[in-house]
Design brief:
heterodimer, A: alpha+beta, SH3 type barrels, 4-stranded mixed beta sheet, 3-stranded antiparallel beta sheet, 31% strand, B: 404 residues, mainly alpha, Hydantoin permease, 19 helices
Chain lengths: 114, 404
């Protein structure tokens, strides 16, 4: 049986091409009447990370961090939970990749950019 | 690459990459003011460093995690912010010290004031990172660092009193000026135990895909490489004690420290000192810049690695670029490199628990290291030296600032 905090939260996420695209910043649970909550999705993003901090720190850091769109990975897309978590998505099409893509485009224009 | 060659290269790079601005400056200052009496602190710091480096290689080989990634995973994001922020701030200051020392070496060579060299030096460091790969950074620059062996040559030529040197390895209390003695003691500990060193080492081990078969190599590189490396620091201290000690000179600038080798090596001494300072600090600047980018990228789960293309690890590339830009500013503004070096070494010691304590927990967690958990000796040595370094730093820094 998985321990969500020990085995899932803060683990490295790899997409279907084994690209690292973030850590599991949050786990979305669904509560059900008369039954234990169940995992619906994993989240990656600044907003989710900030929500985990103490309120004063979250407020203070929120001033500097832009609240970006969170990447939500449905439970069904999770392929394997081991040392890393493999998911069946294309990370380059998620909001988590936006900055990476912008920077990559910029570096491609510099001499020697590879 | 054959195992023997890999081992030899590992030892040579650990040796050649050992000296940097902090170890040169603090050892020279300790020797000039207190003779050989602080050699035992250097030995204590080195013992702890050998354990820490061996541990970081072992963690990487067994768990395939770097220290930064494992700390984030094991302790969560909220906790991870603490070592991340602490180490990034102290690491940046240490980088300023290394860049400043390279610029000072160029000032010695050209006569042009050091602050004018800030931008060209940062550009060269960045270009090496941009165009090079991990082997070039780790092996190439460390091989150049073998030039620092001139300090050992100078130590032999000075014919220092061996009995007094041996006595220096026995812990003793200061004969005078206790505040300064402990400030230099903690500076030596900070310079020997800079956290970037073992964070960099663990990242390198993961980048080179170490596994359980590398454990013996790791043990030998950590103990012999770092052990011999510390001989270089000891040589700086011994030469300084022999040259400056009898004259009662307190070293307060790199211009004074630069005369370290002229007594034993004549007119070549000055040039060799400048060249040694430049190559040693260039290696350190590259490693610190990478170590900081590794910490950030691994903590946030981005793609990272000096062997990857810039477009495959764009945020990692952006992080080391930004790190260098930030570190160039204080140097270009003319902040005294020696003062920055002294301050950064003490702050390294003060921040040591942030880097070491979670790492120590990981090395005793069988989920990460299985049957290769730390022994009692490693735990005790690392814990005692870390706490001692931090306490000394917290007490001696305000005293030094008020007194100085």
């Amino acid at each position: 049986m998985l321990d969500l905090v020990r085995d899932v939260l803060d683990k490295q996420l790899l997409d279907r091409e084994a690209r690292p695209f973030g850590k599991v910043d949050g786990i979305v649970l669904e509560t059900r009447a008369g039954a234990p909550p169940r995992v619906v999705a994993l989240e990656v993003g600044v907003t989710t990370r900030l929500a985990r901090l103490p309120a004063w720190l979250s407020r203070w850091m929120g001033r500097f961090a832009r609240h970006t769109e969170v990447t939500r990975i449905p439970k069904e897309a999770v392929l394997a939970v081991a040392n890393d978590i493999r998911v069946d998505i294309d990370a380059t099409r998620t909001p988590s990749w936006r900055l990476e893509r912008r920077l990559a485009r910029m570096f491609a224009r510099l001499p020697g950019g590879r | 690459m054959s195992k023997a060659l890999q081992l030899a290269l590992g030892v040579v790079t650990a040796f050649g990459g050992f000296l940097e601005a902090g170890s040169i400056a603090t050892s020279a200052q300790a020797g000039s003011e207190f003779g050989y009496r602080l050699l035992w602190v250097l030995a204590l710091g080195t013992l702890c460093l050998v354990f820490l480096v061996e541990m970081s290689g072992r963690l990487a080989a067994i768990s395939h995690h770097t220290i930064a990634a494992a700390v984030r995973e094991r302790f969560g994001f909220t906790f991870y912010l603490l070592p991340l922020v602490g180490m990034v701030l102290v690491g940046l200051l240490t980088l300023v010290a290394e860049l400043g020392a390279i610029c000072i070496a160029l000032q010695f060579a050209t006569g042009i004031a050091f602050q004018w060299w800030a931008v060209p030096v940062v550009f060269v460091v960045w270009a090496l990172l941009w165009g090079g790969n991990f082997d070039l950074i780790e092996n190439g620059v460390s091989l150049l660092g073998l030039l620092t062996v001139v300090f050992i040559v100078a130590a032999f030529r000075e014919q220092p009193p061996l009995r007094e040197i041996a006595a220096g390895f026995v812990p003793s209390l200061p004969p005078h000026d206790g505040g300064r003695f402990w400030f230099l003691a903690v500076s030596i500990l900070g310079a020997t135990l800079t956290p970037y060193l073992f964070y960099f080492y663990s990242s390198g081990a993961v980048e080179e895909h170490w596994d359980e078969r590398m454990l013996n190599t790791n043990r030998i590189v950590a103990s012999i490489g770092m052990g011999f490396g510390a001989v270089l620091s000891a040589a700086v201290l011994i030469v300084s004690a022999t040259v400056f000690g009898p004259r009662g000179i307190r070293l307060e600038s790199y211009e004074q420290i630069a005369l370290l080798l002229t007594d034993s090596l004549g007119r070549w001494g000055f040039a060799l000192f400048a060249a040694s300072l430049a190559v040693a600090c260039l290696g350190a600047a590259l490693e610190i810049t990478l170590a900081l980018a590794y910490m950030v990228a691994q903590g946030f789960g981005w793609s990272w690695g000096e062997n990857l293309g810039h477009q495959e690890a764009a945020r990692f590339t952006a992080t080391y670029t930004l790190t260098l830009v930030l570190a160039a500013i204080p140097v270009a503004l003319g902040l005294d490199p020696l003062r920055v070096t002294n301050l950064s070494m003490v702050l390294n010691a003060a921040a040591l628990p942030l880097a070491v304590m979670p790492f120590l927990v990981l090395m005793n967690d069988r989920d990460y290291v299985g049957a290769h958990a730390n022994g009692r000796l490693a735990n005790v040595v690392v814990l005692v030296v870390t706490v001692l370094a931090c306490l000394l730093a917290v007490v001696s820094l305000p005293l030094e600032l008020v007194g100085g």
